[in-house]
Write a structure and sequence with these properties.
The complex is a heterodimer of chains A (675) and B (230). With 675 residues, chain A is an alpha+beta fold. Chain A has 13 helices and 25 strands. In chain A, helix 8 runs antiparallel to helix 9 and helix 12 packs antiparallel against helix 13. Chain A is rod-shaped. Chain B is an alpha/beta fold and 230 residues long. Chain B is 43% helix and 21% strand. In chain B, helix 6 packs across helix 7 and helix 6 packs across helix 8. The model of chain B has no long low-confidence stretch (mean pLDDT 87). Classes of the chains: A alpha+beta (675), B alpha/beta (230). Chains A and B meet through helix 8, helix 10, helix 11 and helix 12 of A and helix 1 and helix 8 of B.
Chain lengths: 675, 230
């Protein structure tokens, strides 16, 4: 990973800024909400206390029926048409209560409007069996037909059943069955409508005809000769009380409730007996806030969906906090609308008389004020931190680019210096006062040391040979004197061996000082002009004489090969290359000398078959005292190719070595003479 | 009467070895380890030949200085530099100061003896009249093998002993290529490629000084040199 990416990653840390901001805002919101909840709880408790005086208004369930046996009578805002359609009821479809029927769900609702009670039933029935006129006449309630029955105990405490069955879809007649027989009810309007896989019944019953208890029975007949399956809204023998909002309590609640607040009163079972007040819509356009809103949604606490704060469509409040209140514990909670983000704080408090819980007070309040404040702050925070992050990231990126460019320039310059052996040139950033400047200076220092070391290595050979020459002269002259003494056989052998050794030593010393002599010669040589082709041609012939077990080929693709310099030195260079080529090839191999031209240079190539050059040696092959020969061949001190290089460079050219197919090719390029 | 040879050499071991070798050849040898004692001794009596090391202990160029003084005093005194300094520059400096030969310590004792003998022979020959039998003529070149002198277009070419032997070896059989080994043998010296190249260059330069059109020594690239009779 390069420096730029690293710093870019580091710049991501600035994202901590918005995170910290959000964290702060979230904490604030929680604190504010807690405060509001506390306040609401106080109010709710006060209301609950005051509600005790309306104790007699709260319905009381007797033990003859269970909680679920009651029906809830909704309030309608307008009069529905009796036509079998539910859409003109001002109720959400969620207000439809479900019963399990034999062919599917049965959904129904009971509501009141202006002294009348309305019934809507929707039955799934695989095949609808209509009543026959006869059966209607016999029992009015047509025992052997699909039918809906509303059971009530009349104000006079008698149990009555209002049966709705149809001979055909459309308006139907309702029959009332009482202990006194059955009769068609002209006051009751009813409509039967067939739907695919079932039917719907809508009916209007004047309120006076119904008792305080109410239940629904749906009879599904599969066969005209059978009574069929019964589904009912109550589990016991008798239906439970009809529950509804109680006008007196509604009025009280309406007086107690404040703006942007909702007050719900329930009885001991959670049935809603009063609801008053509306929560503000949130005052926020859910689509208009776009990006900030999306980020905000990711950051804030979700909360429970606000729909659960609404009064229960089925009439019975069953949210956990209400249930807790009905068990005698005051409980607070909060909701949030997914659409608007509005949070709603809700508190439920029990209404207690003595030790008995007779109902609950549910108080809800929107948190618009907090929300809008927070929202504005949040978008500002998001904007500012986003810009900050971008600026910081941009600055870091630029800084990293600058930094890495300096470092790269430094590294390239150092590599160049190594490559060209110009180890004293100034490196970039050398004057900078930062760490890169230090690095540059260290680099320079290291390169300089390297240069001095190389210089030392270069002069080492000649210095050494110079220093060793005197002691060697002592040895040889002593030996030569010794040979004139009387020596026995053994001594003669020893002196001969010592002479050989000294001779070898002398040759090594002379090879060691060769480089410095070549350098000196080059310095003083007066360049002469000569035909390189003739020189190479003649030299190749000489090599054939010297190395009898190799074949030499000379090819030239150059018309004129006028060069300037010292042919003797160039031959000396060729000697080194050919000597090298001979050493690395085998008897019978062909060593090729070639003369080519390229641009303004003449190329002399010496190619021999043999082992390839190891890659790691390639760059230092032409350095002083570097030998690629293994073993201890004392003739070679790694100076031959160094001398070749000195000569090539002395002629303004350069030397290089390459692996070619199955061998090695040394190429010397020297500038061509201008015509 | 035995010839006197003075050796000015700071390295005692070498001095003794050379002295022993010269004594064996019948010379009388005086050894000195520094410039001043040598000069003091030469004050009273000059030797017949001097072998000088360039580097005399702390007296880095003492040998050159000594050569200058001696040459000023005796124009004909044979002076040989025998030194570990093998650079071209030193060799040229030494020869410019009037030394008869500049040898590195690589040289073997027999070679050194041969040179010394040759120098004395030349000195002796100078005293005698010219002998026609000792003369080789190749066009403009004439070589006196007795006196070891070379003339080009009847003008003397001042060659050192090594140079003389090289010219002699080349001109004896014109047209024949002499390779390095042959030249080395002729010059009674162990010389490497570069030294032979420098010697040939120096010889050419000396001839050029007399005749700009001199081109009788031809380089046969990769093989050696040959004399071409003009």
């Amino acid at each position: 990973m390069n420096l730029r990416r690293q710093l870019l990653l580091v710049s991501l840390l600035t994202l901590m800024l918005p995170w910290a901001g959000c964290e702060f805002i979230r904490e604030t919101e929680i604190a504010l909400r807690a405060g509001q909840e506390q306040m609401l709880a106080g109010t709710a408790k006060a209301i609950a206390g005051s509600m005790v005086q309306y104790r007699d208004k709260f319905p009381v369930r007797d033990s003859s029926y269970g909680v679920g046996d009651q029906l809830y009578i909704h309030q309608l805002d307008s009069q529905p048409e009796i036509d079998g359609y539910f859409d003109d009821w001002t109720l959400p479809t969620a207000s439809l209560r479900s019963l399990r029927g034999s062919d599917g769900l049965i959904r129904f609702a009971v509501a009141s409007y202006a002294q009348a009670t309305y019934l809507y039933v929707e039955v799934i029935d695989r095949d609808v069996i209509y009543a026959t006129p006869q059966s209607l006449l016999v029992d009015g309630a047509s025992r052997y037909a699909d039918r809906v029955t509303l059971v009530s105990n009349s104000p006079s405490k008698f149990s009555e059943a209002f049966t709705f069955a149809a001979e055909a879809p459309g308006r139907i007649i309702c029959y009332r069955q009482s202990p006194f027989g059955f009769e068609a009810q002209a006051t009751i309007t009813a409509f039967w409508q067939d739907i695919p896989r079932g039917y719907r019944v809508e009916a209007r019953i004047p309120s006076g005809q119904l008792g305080p208890r109410l239940g629904l029975i749906v009879q599904n007949t599969a066969d005209p000769l059978q009574t069929g399956t019964r589904s009912s809204s109550f589990s016991g023998r008798v239906p439970g009380s009809a529950m509804s909002e109680i006008a007196e309590l509604e009025q009280v609640a309406g007086e107690l409730v404040g703006p942007d607040m909702r007050l719900i009163l329930t009885d001991a079972d959670g049935w809603r007996v009063a609801a008053a007040g509306e929560l503000g819509s949130g005052g926020r356009d859910p689509s208009g806030t776009g990006f900030a809103r999306r980020i905000y949604d990711l950051l804030v606490e979700r909360g429970k969906e606000a729909a659960f704060a609404e009064p229960d469509p089925l009439g019975r409040e069953q949210q956990p906090y209400v249930s807790a209140a009905l068990e005698g514990r005051e409980r607070g909670t909060w909701f949030r609308s997914v659409d608007t983000g509005t949070a709603i704080v809700a508190v439920a408090a029990p209404i207690v008389e003595g030790v008995e819980v007779i109902g609950a007070v549910v108080l809800q309040r929107g948190t618009d004020a907090i929300l809008s404040q927070r929202n504005e702050g949040l978008s500002r925070l998001i904007n500012v931190t986003l810009v900050t992050t971008l600026v910081v990231a941009g600055a870091l990126l630029g800084y990293a680019t600058w930094l890495s460019r300096r470092i790269r320039a430094l590294s390239i310059a150092a590599e160049d210096a190594l490559e060209t052996e110009d180890l004293r040139s100034a490196l970039p950033s050398a004057l900078a006062e930062d760490e890169i400047g230090d690095l540059s200076r260290s680099f320079s220092w290291v390169l300089q040391q390297l240069g001095e070391y190389n210089e030392y290595l270069r002069s080492l050979a000649s210095k050494l040979s110079h220093e060793l020459r005197t002691p060697l002269a002592i040895v040889t002259s002593s030996l030569e004197n010794l040979e004139h003494e009387e020596l026995n056989e053994a001594s003669l052998g020893y002196t001969a061996r010592a002479r050989e050794g000294a001779d070898r030593l002398r040759r090594i010393l002379s090879a060691m000082s060769e480089a410095s002599r070549v350098e000196e010669l080059m310095k003083h040589a007066e360049p002469e002009q000569f035909d390189l082709q003739a020189v190479l041609d003649s030299t190749t012939k000489a090599y054939r004489d010297v190395y009898k077990d190799r074949t030499f080929a000379f090819t030239s693709s150059v018309a004129s090969a006028q060069a300037s310099g010292s042919p003797e030195l160039l031959i000396q260079m060729l000697d080194k290359l050919v000597d090298n080529a001979v050493d690395f090839s085998e008897d019978g191999d062909t060593i090729t000398l070639a003369l080519q031209e390229e641009d303004n240079a003449l190329l002399i190539a010496v190619t021999n078959p043999g082992p390839e050059l190891p890659e790691r040696m390639r760059s230092q092959l032409f350095d002083s005292m570097v030998s690629m020969r293994s073993g201890n061949d004392s003739r070679h001190l790694g100076l031959g190719l160094y001398v070749a290089r000195l000569i090539a460079e002395g002629h303004g050219g350069h030397i290089s070595a390459d692996n070619v197919d199955g061998g090695v090719c040394f190429t010397v390029a020297i500038p061509r003479m201008p015509h | 009467m035995a010839k006197r040879i003075a050796i000015v050499e700071d390295e005692a071991a070498i001095r003794e070895n050379y002295a022993a070798a010269f004594s064996r050849e019948g010379y009388v040898v005086d050894g000195y380890d520094a410039r001043q004692p040598a000069l003091d001794a030469f004050e009273s009596r000059l030797p017949d030949l001097v072998v000088i090391d360039v580097n005399l202990k702390d007296d880095v160029e003492g040998g050159f200085e000594l050569c200058r003084v001696l040459r000023a005093r005796a124009a004909d005194l044979p002076i040989i530099f025998l030194t570990a300094r093998d650079s071209e520059f030193d060799a040229v400096s030494g020869l410019r100061l009037g030394a008869d030969d500049y040898l590195t310590k690589d040289i073997s004792l027999p070679h050194l003896m041969a040179r010394v003998a040759a120098l004395f022979r030349r000195l002796d020959a100078m005293q005698k009249p010219h002998g026609a039998e000792s003369r080789i003529t190749r066009g403009d070149l004439s070589i006196d093998t007795e006196r070891m002198t070379v003339h080009w277009q009847d003008r003397p070419v001042g060659l050192t002993l090594t140079e003389f032997w090289l010219v002699h070896a080349l001109a004896r059989y014109p047209g024949h290529v002499k390779n390095r080994q042959q030249l080395m043998d002729a010059a009674q010296a162990v010389l490497d490629d570069n030294t032979i190249t420098s010697h040939v260059k120096r010889i050419r330069r000396k001839f050029h000084a007399i005749d700009e059109r001199f081109d009788s020594i031809e380089t046969v690239y990769g093989m050696g040199y040959r004399w071409i009779s003009g």
